[in-house]
Amino acid sequence: MEFDLVIKNGKIVDGTGNPWFKADIGIKNGKIVKIGKIDESQGHEVINAENLVVAPGFIDMHAHDDLIFFDDLFNKPKLYQGVTTVVCGNCGISPAPVNRKTLDVLKSYIGILSKRVSFEWITYGDYLRKLEDLGSLGTNFVGLVGHGTLRIAVMGMEARDPSQEELEEMKNLLARSLEDGAFGMSTGLIYPPGCYSKTEEIIELSRVVSKYGGYYATHMRNESNAVLESITEAIRIGREARVPVEISHLKVTGKPNWGKAPEMLKLIERAREEGIDVTADAYPYTAGSTYLASILPPWAHEGGEEKLKERCKDPEIRAKLREFIEKRDDWENFVKQAGWDGIIIAYSPSQPEFEGKSIAEIAKLMQKDPYDIVFDTIAEDGLKAMMIVFVMNESDVEKIISHPYVMIGTDGLDIGVGKPHPRAYGTFPRVLRVYVKEKGLITLEEAIRKMTSLPAQKLKLRDRGLIREGFWADIVIFDPKLIGDEATFKEPRRKPKGIKYV
């Protein structure tokens, strides 16, 4: 038999978690057709994988690459890591469905990439067809519908409950999107407009997801002081809507909350014992990244980006915001969690000289109050300004990353400007370097399972995520001695080492 490609002599880590084994792989028409002993003369092309690991292509369970393909067809930062499938539409925001009347609001919350893309779609199906029109994408694409996107389409940025009519309209938009090919729905309950919604609204929408066999992914309402209550809310949604739940970038933030990881994981274990399909994903860093405007409380975002900028210019409202941040911690208060020295400007179009510096550093350099630095930057940049926040503890990260129900997601995106979080380039190789090779917390086989078959199972991808005859040949080949991340917070775009073929 002739093969398009033969991979010879590799150590196959097949994605099941089982020990590696040596074999050759024959690939034809994009699929694995034989695993065993194959003569190299049978291959049109041959890769000698001696001393290399051959594994299923990695699945990035939490990506924000919804628009990246319009800018970078190959999605190179993910390919460099060995990622062959990205799951997008996370944290409550997806590029579709669109209401033309509120498109500007949606684009402001999607971020800078939306400025480079003409939104020539209305439905989720239209959006998927536009992706297909681009040609062969560098990675496979899985998409979720953002709950925030549904709310913006129906209600704009109004901070209230939907009427029954509005809720029905959201349910209809969601159902149409699932019929068009979306895999489920995501929420971003820290961000507007998701933070304005009650649990009952999410349950009602998740029942639609359940009907179509999808899953519910959530950036929970709180990852700090109320993290246990937020996990409980996510589990309740899964229970009452009868829908599988994926807790996005599972973490616990803020020094007073460090050490809660075992309790968090126990809640997930108990839910699974009860019969609720709850899993999570995580990235291997003690810092996160999001809009700089996330420093401000939810009420500051009411009405959208322009209202937000106006509030940051108003001296009276600035004083109220300052008082709210200093006195309240019943919301995701990044200032209290990270401190000014733990909040780094990742991107500011108006003040590029701030990028890579902490708010504390900038305040000292400018001889200004840190609050004034933040308010002035948001007043000018709005939702374009991005930050990196150091809010986690390595011990919690270790416990979460090594838990059997937790898969890997980058939560990373390089928009081509500023200094992005290094997770966009380093997540998967970093897990293999730090948690497998250096700390020995998990085996190589278990790490690969978390990156491949575990997310494939959650996504119901029945022919990906394993090295199996009949499966698609999404494959990564790497050197187990060299594998590792090179990207840092100072140099975030450095490519990983050790990845030989994808």
What features would you describe in this structure?
- With 502 residues, the chain is α/β, with parallel strands linked by helices.
- The protein folds into 2 domains: 303 residues, TIM Barrel, CATH 3.20.20; 101 residues, no CATH class.
- The protein has 17 helices and 19 strands.
- The longest helix is centred in the middle third of the chain and has 17 residues.
- The chain is globular and about 75 Å long.
| Overall residue-averaged pLDDT value | 97
Radius of gyration in whole Å, from Cα?
22 Å
Tally the beta strands.
19
CATH topology of the largest domain: TIM Barrel
What portion of residues is helical?
25-40%
Mind describing the biggest β-sheet? 7 strands, mixed
CATH class of the largest domain: Alpha Beta
Summed up, the helix count is 17
Query: Architecture of the largest domain, CATH level 2?
Result: Alpha-Beta Barrel
> Into how many domains do the coordinates divide?
2
Structural class: alpha/beta
Feature tags:
19 strands, single chain, 7-stranded mixed sheet, alpha/beta, 6-stranded parallel sheet, 18% strand, globular, 502 residues, TIM Barrel
